[in-house]
Design a protein that fits this description.
The chain has 172 residues and is mainly beta. The chain has a single domain, classed as Immunoglobulin-like, CATH 2.60.40.1430. It has one helix and twelve strands. Strands 5-10-9-2-7 form a five-stranded antiparallel β-sheet, with no helix packed on it. A four-stranded mixed β-sheet has the order 8-1-11-12, with no helix packed on it. A hairpin with a 4-residue loop joins strand 9 and strand 10.
């Protein structure tokens, strides 16, 4: 019976998907990361894509002209604006690499490959509502391993516009 205990623990760790095994490094990003942008909103959207080092800040200006820093963290995050606090201008840090701006009509989608992604860097997607002249959201993704896919979709939902994302990371 005691011989099954170590086997059971190993099996449990493997099934849990635990990647924190000492001495095992996550898989580096060898290929460009595929990023899909989808406009399911009822207005034209511009998606601005860049790569920013984790820990650096975006400079955000709101409708009142006040500025603040938005820190890029490890993992996946979304900062969504509201009518009460809309963002009118967002700057990437100087060290960021910008990959482009893509203006999509309702129903359009665009896939790109983003190079220069590493475990200490995040893909940042800014979603700008052209008709409103404000940013809808800031989406970020940083994986401890390779990013195998990132999809950012703008939606129209009831009285509020929103943005969702899905992603897949490889830890091995």
């Amino acid at each position: 019976m005691t011989q099954w205990v170590p086997f059971g623990l190993v099996l449990l760790v493997c099934l849990a998907g635990c990647s924190a095994i000492p001495g095992v490094e996550p898989a580096p990003q060898k290929e460009p990361a595929p990023v899909m942008m989808v406009n399911n909103a009822t207005q034209t959207e511009t998606f601005t894509v860049g790569v920013v080092e984790v820990g650096n800040n975006l400079t955000v200006q709101d409708g009142d002209g006040d500025s603040f820093n938005y820190t890029i963290n490890q993992g996946s995050s979304t900062y969504t604006t509201s009518n009460a606090s809309s963002f009118t201008h967002i700057d990437f840090p100087e060290s960021a690499s910008r990959h482009g701006e893509y203006t999509l009509q309702p129903g359009e989608r665009k896939q790109i490959d983003v190079e220069g992604v590493a475990p200490n860097k995040a893909i940042v997607v800014l979603v700008y509502d052209e008709d409103d002249g404000t940013y809808r959201s800031i989406k970020t993704l940083s994986c401890s391993g390779a990013i195998q896919g990132y999809r950012v979709t703008s939606q129209k939902g009831g009285s509020d516009d929103w943005t969702m994302s899905t992603h897949q990371c490889s830890n091995w």
